[in-house]
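for the writeup, i need someone to sanity check this before i put it in the appendix. the sequnce is what the collaborator sent (i think, or maybe the updated version? ugh). structure was predicted straight from it, no edits. if anything looks off just tell me and ill rerun, i have time this weekend
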Amino acid sequence: MKLRRVALSGFKTFARRNEIVLETGLTAIVGPNGSGKSNLVDAIRWALGETSARELRGARMDEVIYAGGNGRGPMGMAQVELTLDNEEGRLPTEDVEVAIGRRVTRGGDSEYRINGARTRLRDLERLLASTGLTQSGYAVVAQNDVDAIIQANPAQRRTLVEEAAGVRGLRAAREDALARVVTVETRLLRLEDLLAEAEPRLEELEAQAAVANDHRAMAERLAELRGSLAREEWRAARAQARQARNRLTAARSRAETAGAAEGEVAARLRSERTRLEAARAAHQEAVARLEAARLAEERSAGDVRRWADREHTGALHWASARAESVLARQEVEAAESQVSEMAASGAVAETRLEAMEAESQAGLAVVADAERARREAAELARQAGEALASAEHAHADAVADARDHAARAGLLAEAAAALAQSAAAARQQAIGLTRDAAVAERRAADLAQALGDAARRSEAAREAAGSARLATVAAETAEADAHRAAREAAARAAALRGQMDGALGDSGAVAAAAAAGRLAAVRLVQCFRVRDEADAAAVEAALEPHLGAWLVEDLETAATVLAGGGPREEVLVAGLEMGARISPPSGVRGVLDAIEAQPRALGALAVCLDSVWLAPDRAAARAAVAATGGRAVLPDGTVVQAAGIRGGGRPGETIALAAAERAAAQLAESATAEARTAAERSLDATGARRAADDDSESAAVALAGARTAAAEATAAAAAAAAAAAAEEQRAGNLEAERAARERSRHEAEAAAAATEAEARRLADEAHGATAAAIEAGRHEQDAIAAVDAALEAARAHDVEMAQARSEARELQRRRIAARATLDAAGQRLRLAEARLVAAEGDVIAALARGRAAAVAAVGFSRDVEWAEIDVTRAAPPVGEAEAGIAGLEAQRAEVAVAVARAADETAAAQAQLGAAEQRVAELADAVRGDDADEGPAPDADAAERAEREITRLERRVAALGPVNALAPAQLEVLSGRVGRLRADRDDLAGGCVDLRRIARHLGVDIERRFDAVFGAVAYHFRLLFQELFPGGHATLRLTEPPPLSEDEDEGEVEGEPGTVRREALAGVEILAQPAGKRLQALSLLSGGERALTALAMILALQQVNPSPFYVFDEVDAPLDDANVGRFVKLLLRLSSTQQFIIVTHNHITMAAAEVLYGVTMDGDGTSTLLSVRFEEGRGPIPQRREAVTAAVG
């Protein structure tokens, strides 16, 4: 999988469409500073889903759109498309090529596409998740990414390894879940508190509810007894109930009539809405078909381009495979010939080796005989030599002793003389040092006084520098405020200009020519102002047909521009002479008198406003029109003409916009001037601050020098005094040592005379031993010569035999190598033939599918045309249905009023009936089932018994005391609430326990995955560092986690409700040891070593989480040539299987690249790409190399 092509247009400085075709290997992008190289890197990052405008070096996302340049207007859209080769199937799609595109419009949102189909950012991230092309990865590496790794602390470096392991999101999700658990446990504690408050209240309400139920039963019995005494009340209540029932019947009849009408209207409304929904559905379906057809058309066009590219690529592969097949066949023939030759030579070498081995055995027997004779002679020579050596050794010892005694006596004499001289010199040196100490003390006192003066001058300079810094800060603040005011004023002017252009229209040919500078033209509305704001509406209504007119000097050029086509525009000639003006009728005034115009526009305005008057009212306007036949304009903008009037609403605010735009432009000019003045003041303040800083630095340097000189003088005085005392003591010591040396000299001279006599005696004994040793040595030399001769012959034979064996082994090795070469050549031949067949198949398949895609594209174009016709046909029924619904809604509102009125009457009747029936129900037990209004007289005994029972029940009710009548209802409500609280508490507690258990298991899995990936990253980092730093060593080490605070250690225990323990995670420390240095942290290395080590870390992360391609933006800038060479060598090794794109200025990196792309900046501020490809083994094509060098500059 690799990045095959990058196409971009309208992105930053790449206004025109540019396309880069990439291959596997190392591609370099070069060019001067500011030419747009990094914009290409930003385009790749943006297309992969970058959502932070700051990462793209901007404040808003639409700033990536080309903003215009010299003679070139801004663009409204930016688009980037990356084409990925998916032949290996790393992307979860069946397409062999995947085109990832992103487009943004000015003021709009980004739009993502995959193979031409619109998609979401989430789907794009899911597609690229397994490839390492994520925003958190290192597929695209900028120079600030290298600095971030250098400056990161161990915890931040741990996040890099976690992102490579893919556990960063899991850890964030786990921490978020634990935080939510803490919130839920806080709620759980609140539930416990609520239950603690509610359960005692529940027990209290249960007792109160029992008393309330008894009280209610006795009250109901009292009501029943009292009802027997209220028969007359019951009869009256029944009469009221009959009257209320009659009113309710009449109200319900009216409500049914109104409801029927409402139902009919509602049915018609539902029918119309159904028709509207059907029409809208048809319209939406037509729009959906149109969009689908357009997408299919775009996708089909993309398929045509892709299969054309596949056809071209297949042809290239066929040619390459053909060449490889021919070359492999030649290699097979050469290898077969070489194998035959090596077989014949090997047989000859084997025969010769066997003969030489037989000769070697005979030579060894001769060597053995000579060696025995040599050993016998050597033994005799050894005995004679030992006797001679003993004699010579004794003589030499005696001579050496004599020489030593004589030499020692001479040395002692010389040492005594030297000590005498040194003692005299030490005394003279002590006298001189005493004088120097006095001089140094006087100089130290003078320098101490100078030090005080320098300290006072340094303090004064620091105060002056501080004042200058404050002044500089104030000036810079003022400058920034002035620049901000200028930008705001310019933005206000531009916004007003845009509103005015929007109101007048700026899409015509004259507008385009004026914007391009091909025609000197200005809007008529910009050439005058209204004297009185009260006349603004009237003046705008008077000039309404001419507000969009252009004022030009060259009418012929304007006519040529208009002849080119486009919307209709009005062009007026500047500088026309004003003709005689008609005097205004009585009661009105000319519109031209209400404005103040530029001289060049007076003639054109006079023509446009000829016979146009400002009238105070409609009567004066009609009179003026009748008198002159022109037009009259009222203050509200109504235009009165002989044929009628034009009014309604208010005219636009174009003149006000033009006035506001002129004012804003003047304000912007004044703000710009103020900004320039503030900048000059800031420069002056900066110069003064720099001068004060220089004075302060000079004073500080002088102070430091004075301090150093004073310290040196004090030290010199003390050192001189100490040296003088030391010299005096040394002189005494030297005198004592000289006397001891004189005594030793006399003793050595006596010993030398005795040893000379002993040496003469031992010399005579050595002469006799020498003669015997000479004779033994002669016999030994003869034996050695015989052995040497035999050995020389054997060695010569061994050399010849070793050479023969070497030749035989070489022939065998060459025969094996020739056989391997033959096998490899045969394999290459078979592979080349297979690739040839595959390439032919790819070309044929690409041709067939390309033709099929072209046919499909024509069909999709027809589908688009039919879909547009369907959309046009589906629009009118929607408007008709909406109009019908609006009319039915009005009818429904009228019917709803009638329904509401009937409902009010019904509700009132029901309320009266309910009250009457309630009263009847209250007295129903008393009447004992009477159905008539009249009945028998009540029984006196029954009434007396009822009175007695009423009295007894009243006593019992009184004995109960105050009763909470609401207790049963409150008990029911509180019981339900307590039950819900208990159920919620149990559910939340169980959920928290499960979540914490899952979080613990997830934490263990995260650490296990982190440890595995950390080991892999550390392994690759160590190997890459050793390759970048030969002889060096580096490692990644997990640091100790930061200690928990005392409160966290004692109170925050994981699993305790309401708390979550802060995780103490080990950080990642980078330790490096370049060759010849000790192992140390990354921050202690030199700048180049830090940068190269950080690159090794990035490459290690990339090896663990590989991407299809890698982009490096000037990462080799801080490296010297040697480090760049090693870095490029590493990239070349990795580029055999990976794809690298590097933005660089370094000549070494350029020389190593297989393809160079040059980025140059044109005169209109747009970037252009030029490419050059390196031929295999011969460097770049000369003509293209010169073109790139000239273009890139």
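The longest strand covers residues 77-85. The radius of gyration is 55 Å.
thx in advance!!
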